[in-house]
Amino acid sequence: MNGERPVKISEITAIIKEILEGSFPSVLLEGEISNYRPSSTGHLYFTLKDDSSSISAVMFKGRSRQLAFVPRDGMLVRAKGSISVYEARGTYQIIIDSMEQAGTGDILRLLEERKQRLAREGLFDEKSKRPIPFFPERIAVITSPTGAAVRDIVQILRRRNPAIHIVILPASVQGSEAPESLARQIETANRFAMADLIIIGRGGGSLEDLLPFSDESVVRSIAASKIPVISAVGHETDWSLSDLAADVRAPTPSAAAELASPLAEDILDTIRTSISLLEQSIRGKTEKIRLMMGAFTAESLEMRFRRIAQPRLLRFDDAKEGLLEGMKKQLDTARRRLEMASAGLEGASPRAILKRGYSMVRNAESGAIIRSASEATPGTLVEIIPGEGIIFARVEEKHDEEI
């Protein structure tokens, strides 16, 4: 190295920049989006990767406006742009001019397959969702003990309602050990009934970073939890299968803390309002009763009694008149039937027949009715009974022939 002039970093970087940018003024890459980070200014930052390599990528606002879709982690895309070297950091990246979807990435395919399979088992059924307690006395927070998420959750819970007890159940939220750690803490919280509500989550990250929250063991633990669970994984645009298995999905850990804790001042306002409404109701009813009592004089009671009794007395009189009228009609009908029957009987009596000109003849000694001339012999004393009176006669002769 003696006598050899050191090359400045800026010089070697400039050479690399010239070589790279000159060699790849336009390149078409296909890869999966990871660690997608849209900025507030409209620029899109993310990583494009395949099975073994990755490259930083940026799509500036002017180009990103032309996208026909919303990029997200795990999405497989084809991006056309140029290779650029960022000299300040000595890194290279692709500056994308245009981009189109190329299909579904491996991770998304994996998650979709797992999602469909667990859904068929009923782990995401809405009917299985448990209600979040309105006023949980104790909340278990399952997350990294050193992350920003736990600080945000604790700070918001303390601010909104200091009466709530917070139990931190530390867990790994990233890496291969995370699924087992998360599932174990959910089971621990349930086994020892440590809380009325569980918040499980972490801050934002790439789709790969959030994968533990889509692990099957974690999803099954959440679905089997007897304690209601709020899932708060990443930012609002992030998602995981834990969100589907949980009873409530919060867009962020901070939002989960707000959902879990009613504002103490709101509760007090509600109690004060309820007390005020109850007092007003009691005063109103008391005043109404007082006015009613003041209106109850002897005269008013008599008037009230008359107003109540008069209609009933009228109805009673009407009913009585109706009953008497009905009975009179029935008596008249019965009387007419009796008269008709009597007339019929009278017309059929022997006396009535005799009065029409007929007479009855009987033997005066035996009293037997003589119906035929053969029943009498000359000299027989007979009684002839016409319509009125009786005639005694003796048979002089008889003729048996039919007249």
Automatic annotation (TrEMBL):
One of the GO BP terms on file: DNA catabolic process
Keyword Hydrolase tagged: yes
Key words, A-Z: Cytoplasm, Exonuclease, Hydrolase, Nuclease
Residue ranges occupied by any Exonuclease VII large subunit C-terminal domain in the UniProt entry: 123-344
InterPro entries: Exonuc_VII_L (IPR003753), Exonuc_VII_lsu_C (IPR020579), OB-fold_nuc-bd_dom (IPR025824)
Protein's UniProt keywords contain Hydrolase: yes
Similarity field: Belongs to the XseA family.
Function: Bidirectionally degrades single-stranded DNA into large acid-insoluble oligonucleotides, which are then degraded further into small acid-soluble oligonucleotides.
HAMAP family: Exonuc_7_L (MF_00378)
Protein name: Exodeoxyribonuclease 7 large subunit
Native species: Teretinema zuelzerae
Name of the gene encoding the protein in the UniProt record: xseA
